[in-house]
Structure formats: C-alpha cells, structure tokens
Amino acid sequence: MEDIKKYATDIRREIIEMAYRSGGPHVGSALSCADILATLYFSALRLEQWEERDIFILSKSHAAMALYATLTVKKIMSPQLLEKYSQDNGSLPAHLDVMTGQGIECSGGSLGHGFNIGLGMAFGFKSQASNRRVFALIGDGESQEGSIWEGALFAPRQGLDNFTAIMDYNNLQGYGRPDDLCNFEPVADKWRAFGWHVCETDGHDCHSILAALNENSGGKPKMVIARTVKGKGVSFMENRLIWHYYIVTEEHRAIALKELNVE
Amino acid sequence: MLINNEILDSDSESINMRNAFIDTVMSACRTREDIFILTGDAGLGVFDRFKDEYPDRFRNMGVAEQNTISFAAGLAMTGYKVFIYNIIPFVLYRCYEQVRNDICYQELPVTLVGIGSGITYAPQGMTHYSIEDIGLVQTLPNLVAISPVDPVEARVAAHYALASNKPVYVRLAKRGEPAYHSDETFDIAVPQVIKAGGGAAIVFHGSISQEVMAAYEVLKDRGSAPLVISVPTVQPLDTVSLLGMLSNVAHVVCVEEHFTNCGLGNMIVRLKAEQSAIWRLTLLGIAPHFIHKIRNCEGLRADYGISAASIVDAVESVPA
Which residue did the predictor score with more confidence, B174 or A218? Predict the structure, then answer.
C-alpha cells in the first residue's frame, strides 16, 4: 500500500509537469483522481495478460493528464509521449483519443459517454462468458448528464456485476458545487434506488478505495462514491474552483513539486 | 413522449425496404455469432423471431437513445458487429454526439438502421420526418451513408453493412416499395442506372422512387425517356462514376425527399462547380423549413414539387 501512495505521488508530479509544459487547464481535476488511478493500476486492475485485461475508462476525460501519467508510471505508455502533451505537433491531446497512445481504451472529452461505452463493454464481456471487468471513472459534474442516468437505469436489469463506476466526488465542477447547482444530494441514495451496489470511500485512502473496489456487489453493478479534494496534494490548489482552469506557472510548479517532495 | 413507435411500426408491409434489410441481417445470424441487434423500443413484430432464436444477441434498450449508441460502441469494442434499429430521429438526431464521438471518431463497426426516411411517416408531424439527415451525415467523417431506392438495394446494403468494418448509416422506408433492380449483383457504393435514356437524367435516392418511376413512364410514353440513376450510397459519393454516367446528358434533375440545401442535391451542385460540368441542373426537394401542413406523404410530395407530375414538368422544362 505504501507503494501505491508512492506511485500516486509520481503521478501527481507528472501531472504538474504536463500542466506546466502545456500551459493547459484541468490540473485540479487530474490531481483529484490520482490516488484512485494509482489504486486501480497498481492493485485492482488485472493487467498481466494484456489480451484478457480489465478495462479502465476515464469518462471524465478532461483529467487525461492523470491517465497519461498513470500509464507512464505503470510503464504501459512511453514516457516520451508525456513530453509533448497538449502542444503544437504534440503527442497526446488534452482529451483522450484512443488512437494516440498505448493503454488508452476509449476516446473522450464530452461528458456522459465513457460510462455508457463501459456498460456496453461489460455487457459484451459477459455475453462472451469472459471474466474481464470494466471500471469507469466519472466526475460529480458529469453525473448531471442525462446519459448517465439512462445507463444507471439500464445496467442493473442486465446484471452487469462486472462493471464498476467510480465517482470522483471532489465537490467542485467547472463553475460551482454540484449541490448548489442542482439537487445532487443524496447522490448515494439515488444510485441505490436505481439498483446499484453503492460503496462510499475516502478517495485518497488507497486501502479504503481498494476495499470498495473489491467489495462483493451481490450481482449488481457497483458505484464507488469516492470523496476527494480537487487539486489534492498541492496546498494552494486544494478545494479551489479556479484550479479547474488555472494555468500552472513556473512558480506554481516549483512550489507544487516541493510540496510533493520530489525536487 | 414524442412517439408511439409501435403504432407507427404496426403498419408494416411484407415486402419493403425495411423488411428486406432486416431479414438479410437476421439470416446472417445463422452463420455469424458476432451479430448483435439493439432496438430503442421500436419495431413491433419485426424482431420476434430473432428474439426467440437468439435471445442473447438482442436487446430492447428502451427509450434511452444516448445510452443505446454509446452502449453499442462498447459492444463493438468487444468484437460484436452491432446493428441499431430505430426511427431516424432516434438513431441520428437525439444522439448525434454519441454517433459522432463514440462510433465515427473511434471508427467502430456499428450500423445505424434508420426507419422513416424523408416524409414517409406523414402526417405524424415534423418531429418524425427525416429530411435533413443527409446534412448531418455530411458532418460525420468515416460514416458510410446508404439511402436505398427499393428492397433490392436495401438487401445489397445489408450485405455491405454485414461485411464492412466501418460505421454505416442506412435510411429506409417501409411503405411497400416495389423492386426496380432485377438482380443483386451490383456494387452498392456505385450509382446505378435504373432506366436507360437520354437528353435529361433523373438522379435520385431513397423513398421518392415511386414518383420518379411514374414520371419516367410518362416521359417514355411521350417519346423522351430520360436516363434514371439511383444513388444508393450518398456518402462517400462516387463522383467519378456519376460524372461518367452523366457525360452525355444536357440536363440533370436531382430528386430527393430531403431539404434541398444539405442533401444529394447540394453535393451535385458542388460537383458541377468543381468539375465545370456543362449540364443544366435542377434540384427538386423540400425547401428548408419546418413542415406544419398536415398532409399524407403523397399530398406533401405534391405540395413540395417532388411528385411524379412535378418531376415530369422539371424534365420537360426549357432553360430560361
């Protein structure tokens, strides 16, 4: 478990570097899910036999830096690709394109797509009597998409217990807090009412995340509601709305890397 | 609730484009285990036999078009050849972004089977007409779009879709369309000469075929049989073949049950401009606007100048 925390820090360092080099937004969104991705890729996902691997879909694709960093730390994706993330004549786009790098399972960028694609994949694997599983990470803002609730209604009836959704509930979407914009809470009860097995966890505690991911769902699809802090790991970014869009300057980068203790 | 699909679909004819297409796909399931059919709570009776024989390869996804398209993309990513059946607004309009991002962008072998092309659902109302879908198709790279004119082209389109690894969209009617092809040994990607003739050429696609053929018979009786060309595959348009077929005509009349500003007509306008074609061009179609008239299909065709009589007039017209 200590290793997972170390990998999560490596992932955060790469996120800060990518955000700095590219001058692009969404650093807060990426930092928010670093522990979840570290737990998935360094413990929960079965990746040893690549052709039979578990699938992870980053449905909140604006956090692409987190996935690129994770795939690189996991040595699935070439580190050279990170150097030209989101730049002119670059290597990796700011939102996922399945044709750009090893380990990217699904294109994305518009919210409320990857979750439903994941349901289709989970159904396909089940139909083929395969044990492969599908995990999809959605945002709390993304949870307002109608397509999410279409899928939420549909999946339990199909018995998709090989599908796990994880909500990165950092309680800060682009321009506000979910519950200020809509009747978001009680969100766990909503998913339970739709027929899902719901686990709630601290989204930065790898033990707790792993326990939720491993919990028996009793034949239901699973929703792991992971309470997170946007910008986690960098004090001046934590729980601040501006870091959905703010650009990482040289000064920001220096302080952030110092805090992440990787200088 | 916009629609009761079941009522609309209960008037099915035994031989029509829809049944020709679907029967071909269902027959293929006997030898192929990778075919999966999704519907959106539509198609009463159409899939009963299939559901009984292959319950594991059919799902009614309910009234949830966005989930249906993304789900289909996911199924395709696990190796299935997926067909999605619904009326056209629900495979292309409501879920346009899912078609764009999940299927076309990712180049997945999903076929959208859209029913009710043009104004075949009249007088159900504008929400049920599909007279701008080819305009949308033109904004979707990688998507092959087929608009058959008869059950034979629909069957050949089904064989194409079954063999293709590309995203495919097929727009179909189901009003009992007669067959105009005598055999199935043609390439659906290529425009087809339906009737030989000269002087003028009628170029058309989709559900307007009966009006076109009626116009042809009138013109033939008057001693001026035009060349009649169907264009089943509107995207990608085989411009080389089409230009070759039109090389000896003086006048091209494009007829479609579609808006004139974003259908086959506007593709031919562009083709004529780019190739400096010398033939005169007349576009017959529906001027882009929302239809509030409550008329049946034949009535609307007469109103919009795409009836057999209007086609005859257009072919016989002289340049101003």
Answer: A218
